[in-house]
Design brief:
- The protein is of the alpha+beta class.
- The protein has a single domain, classed as Arc Repressor Mutant, subunit A.
- It is about 55% helix and about 15% strand.
- The protein has five helices and three strands; from the N terminus they run H-E-H-H-E-E-H-H.
- Strands 1-3-2 form a three-stranded antiparallel beta sheet.
- Helix 2 packs across helix 3.
- The protein is elongated.
Length: about 110
């Protein structure tokens, strides 16, 4: 892997954005992560990591002035960058190489 390795939660969050079409705001991301992992995820932790990923150049964001939910807040949508896609592909390739030949060992255990 490259020198800018993703942390586990960062990796999961980027994958959740990808699963939601490549662009999403924090609430659907929380729901997606909770559904996929079976773990409780706080919206604040998701938003903090989204901002960190944006600073790393893995996400861009935009404010949607048209969507003001009952809270009156404008939603911030985050979109994957080409660099995020490159890192996800690299990570997938690395993990696939590590898993190669292990499935039969796991099944026998």
């Amino acid at each position: 892997m490259g020198k800018n390795r993703l942390g586990e939660f960062e990796h999961r969050l980027l994958l959740a954005v990808l699963r939601l079409g490549g662009e999403a705001y924090s609430v659907p991301l929380v729901l997606e992560l909770e559904e996929r992992t079976g773990r409780e995820v706080s919206q604040s932790s998701v938003f903090i990591v989204l901002q960190r990923l944006e600073k790393k150049g893995l996400l861009t964001s935009r404010l949607d002035e048209q969507t003001k939910p009952e809270t009156g807040r404008v939603r911030r949508y985050f979109r994957l960058t080409p660099e995020a896609m490159r890192q996800l592909r690299e990570s997938r390739s690395d993990l696939m190489a590590l898993w190669e030949g292990i499935s039969t060992t796991l099944d026998e255990a």
